[in-house]
Amino acid sequence: MFYDTVIIGAGAAGMMCAIHAARQGGPRALVIDHAKAPGEKIRISGGGRCNFTNLEAAPDRFLSLNPHFCKSALSRYTQWDFIELVQRHGIPYHEKTLGQLFCDTSAQDIIRLLLDEMEKAGAALRLETSLADFTKTESGFDLMLETGGRRTPVSCRNLVVACGGKSIPKMGATGFGYQIADRFDHKVTGIRAGLVPLTFTPAETEEFKALSGLSCDGALSCSGGAYGKARFEEAVLFTHRGLSGPAVLQISSYWREGLPVTLSLRPDIDLLAELKRQKTANGKRHVATILSDYLPKRLAQSFADQAGLTERNIADIGDKALAALAAAIQAREIRPAGSEGYRTAEVTVGGVDTTGLTSKSMESKTVPGLYFIGEVVDVTGWLGGYNFQWAWSSGWAAGTAIANS
Ligand SMILES: Cc1cc2nc3c(=O)[nH]c(=O)nc-3n(C[C@H](O)[C@H](O)[C@H](O)COP(=O)(O)OP(=O)(O)OC[C@H]3O[C@@H](n4cnc5c(N)ncnc54)[C@H](O)[C@@H]3O)c2cc1C
Fold this sequence. Notes:
Elements: E1 2-8, H1 12-21, E2 29-32, H2 40-44, E3 51-54, E4 62-63, H3 71-76, H4 79-88, E5 93-95, E6 100-103, H5 108-121, E7 124-126, E8 129-136, E9 141-147, E10 150-161, H6 176-183, E11 192-194, E12 198-199, H7 202-210, E13 215-222, E14 230-238, E15 242-244, H8 246-252, E16 261-265, H9 271-281, H10 287-291, H11 297-306, H12 319-330, E17 332-334, E18 338-339, E19 347-349, E20 370-372, E21 380-381, H13 386-404
Parallel strand pairs: 1-2, 1-10, 2-7, 10-20
Antiparallel strand pairs: 3-6, 4-21, 5-6, 8-9, 9-10, 11-19, 12-15, 12-18, 13-14, 13-16, 14-15, 16-17
Helix pairs in contact: 1-5, 1-13, 9-12
The chain binds flavin-adenine dinucleotide.
């Protein structure tokens, strides 16, 4: 059996690629997936409503050892192109926060959109199918596909690797794409769990556990990792395992073992100036009561207790102690012990090294007809719809290049 293009992985990137690679009709493109259903990550994304893109999508919201690599695909297939597609399918959506676009009804709307477009383009889909073996030939690739124990040989001119990263193994993530890269001598950068809750020392975990369930506006910053320095101002959530919430997930992609992270709560105010003002204006109020003007009550009490200022009037506290209290709340250095890992990570940071790929088409520079798209590549987006945008843009870039070749 011959297909012009075989795509491994019926996720966001693979289906997008199939739509464009098969554009000229006929069963020219085949997508295989070992899962029972296509687009499983789309289905669970955004709490079931799929945060499918971001109005602010731009190259500076993506991590990569080569920050320029993503520019070509992102500028040629933009968030506006995908929004137009969503509108054309009559899918209702809304902006939630910070440019994040979500389906009004269900993430299934996006899966249906992709399947409809694939059908229109004449792309074939084979589920519960894996790639048992593959070799490079002069004109393309010889593959051995396996469906329910039955093996089928298939030849193709183009082989597109769209099998995602390692995050959420329970949903079928295998890291198989890195093995294919390795077989063809493509380098894979250091990979790690990203957009993931961080974990802490036993003492800190106990402290955060006592505050479990509280959320507060915060900022987290980190520097010294492979992707440079970063700072995110968003909600911080205290959990029974450590810290989570958008700001924590965001900084986790930049963090490396051993690096400190600076945590600031209520970064929108100058807390020391506020405390000094309150000392003059409301000297008889307790420190914890004053702190609760700015922080959730339980958190305010915890900081007052930790500073040894329980039930003390603010007028009796020296400026040095107030400065130390403000620093504990707004400039606290913490050293995460680790992260919750691939089990809960939304993405895999790192991947197939972009130095071996052409940014315009996502094709291998050394193996003609071999393409890598989506999360398997060393391009990782921020939280907020950026990772799907990368899947759409890179899938489109490869699909269009194949259709035009
Ligand atoms: C819980 C969760 C929520 C998320 N929410 C969002 C969000 O709202 N917005 C956003 O932008 N991003 C979100 N993400 C990230 C986003 O889902 C991924 O970045 C995106 O799905 C990557 O697309 P992909 O096509 O490259 O890979 P995937 O979507 O992972 O698709 C890869 C496909 O390949 C298949 N596969 C893997 N190995 C093999 C193999 N050996 N043989 C055959 N098939 C194989 C898998 O079954 C899968 O269908 C979320 C991730 C998670 C885990």
